[in-house]
């Protein structure tokens, strides 16, 4: 007859065939019922961590069109399946209940935020870019032809890759901006 002592993991470890407590002695009924989130996923999507310019590969596990787990990709030569603490916590970027999923806008001198539809927000941004370009346009500076605007600048994030930086440079240069930088230092 089994007693409460038999259910105690330390007792099982000391009296059983698993003295180091790495096998059966460390397992309980609750442990036996645990299933990894990755085992129940419908599909795995390859992705890249958004935090820095290293570009660690990730495996995103999806079940019922919801992200259930994000792990490092062991097939990646960049991170070999490992993620830093930020990368390991990147699932919360998608699943956090506090994640903002609407365009939020606070009018100048306003005290409250309001929701905007995406088309309205994009029109507002386009209008402001064109206005800044027009107001700060310079044909000449010190007698030299410059054809530039000092009203638009770009500081790219460290998570942008070379291709994205190339496109940003082309876009801002086409608008006449000359202050175009990227903060990536790796």
UniProtKB/TrEMBL annotation:
Q: Which GO terms describe its cellular component?
A: cell envelope
Q: Among its keywords, does the record have Iron-sulfur?
A: yes
Which residues belong to any copy of the 4Fe-4S Mo/W bis-MGD-type domain? 42-98
What name is this protein filed under? Formate dehydrogenase major subunit
Q: Where is this region: Disordered?
A: 72-92
The similarity comment for this entry is: Belongs to the prokaryotic molybdopterin-containing oxidoreductase family.
What is the originating organism of this protein? Geodermatophilus obscurus
Which Gene3D superfamilies does this chain map to?
3.40.50.740, ADC-like domains (2.20.25.90)
Indicate where this protein resides in the cell: Cell envelope
Q: Name one GO biological process term.
A: anaerobic respiration
Q: Record keywords: Lyase included?
A: no
Keywords for this entry?
4Fe-4S, Iron, Iron-sulfur, Metal-binding, Oxidoreductase
Entry cofactors: [4Fe-4S] cluster
Q: Which GO terms describe its molecular function?
A: 4 iron, 4 sulfur cluster binding; electron transfer activity; molybdenum ion binding; oxidoreductase activity
Q: Which SMART domains match?
A: Molybdop_Fe4S4
